[in-house]
Design goal:
There is one protein chain. This protein is an alpha/beta fold. The chain has a single domain, classed as Metallo-beta-lactamase, Chain A (4-Layer Sandwich). The chain contains 9 helices and 14 strands. The strands form 2 sheets. A 7-stranded mixed sheet has the order 6-5-4-3-2-1-14. The chain has a 7-stranded mixed sheet with strand order 7-8-9-10-11-12-13. A hairpin with a 6-residue loop joins strand 1 and strand 2. The chain is globular, with a radius of gyration of 17 Å.
């Protein structure tokens, strides 16, 4: 039995817990260690059951609590070479067992964790796929400006996909952000829009994905109802029905309750 829980989501911080056979890994630790421990307690996850932290990239909303949390839990931190170099050069790896992601899988108890490249303005950003011993699989793909063929290939067939639905395009361009920032967010190295996220969902559903979680929503340039409507409408065009063919959840700033697969 696999378990997925978004602890925090969005520009104020990101952290996901994935569990199997009583052990958990964290994908990112973008809030303080104290805050992450609070959310773990709310979800009845014992910090002693965490066996590793996997970092998608070096932006502060993904690494703010990595050093303190990893050193206090005494668990390894896995990152790509580019991300690891940033962590080391900027003091985020002090007293941390920092390890490079291999090309294959990392075995973490009953879980096998692999990574894939994402398209983001970071040193070497990535997403992760977690394969559980019971055959269930969970993929996390956030902070990417586009869904590349390689990303699709890496996440297809997952039982649950946590996919970025960062902004509504109209809200982004009508909002108060400086124009260069708007262009950066909307670029192929920025963040995935509701429309781009939704366009990926039918193909994933056809490969067996039955649970979708939309995450990393912008507090300024999106609303949960818009992200949800976009996803449901796009899936509906392919005759894929919510409740019958898939379950959909939208993660807020404080994440969402655990989902059991």
């Amino acid at each position: 039995m696999a378990r997925f829980c978004s602890l925090y989501s969005g520009s104020s911080g990101n952290c996901v817990a994935v569990g199997c056979a009583g052990k958990y890994i964290l994908i990112d630790a973008g809030r303080t260690a104290k805050k992450i421990r609070e959310r773990l307690a709310e979800e009845c996850i014992d910090p002693c059951d965490i066996v590793g932290i996997f970092v998608t990239h070096e932006h502060i909303d993904h690494i703010a609590g990595v050093r303190v949390l990893a050193s206090s839990l005494k668990v390894p931190v896995y990152a790509t070479e580019g991300t690891a170099a940033f962590l080391e050069e900027n003091g985020h790896a002090r007293n941390v067992d920092l390890r490079l992601m291999p090309k294959g899988k990392v075995d973490m108890g009953d879980m096998g964790v692999s990574c894939f490249a994402t398209s983001h303005d970071a040193a070497e950003s990535c997403g992760f796929r977690v394969e559980c011993g019971d055959g269930r699989s969970i993929s996390i793909a956030t902070d990417t400006g586009v869904i590349t063929p390689a990303i699709h290939a890496a996440i297809e067939g997952s039982d649950l996909v946590y996919l970025e639905s960062n902004h509504d395009v109209s809200m982004l361009y009508a909002g108060g952000y400086p124009y260069p920032l708007k262009k950066r967010i909307a670029s192929d190295k920025g963040h995935l829009s509701n429309e781009a996220c939704s366009a990926e969902l039918p193909a994933l559903a056809h490969t067996g994905t039955t649970r979708f979680v939309l995450g990393h929503l912008s507090a300024e340039n999106n609303m949960p109802i818009l992200a949800r409507q976009s996803a449901v409408q796009e899936l509906g065009k392919s005759g894929i029905r919510e409740g019958a063919d898939y379950l959909l959840a939208v993660a807020g700033i404080n994440g969402l309750k655990s989902m059991v697969l």
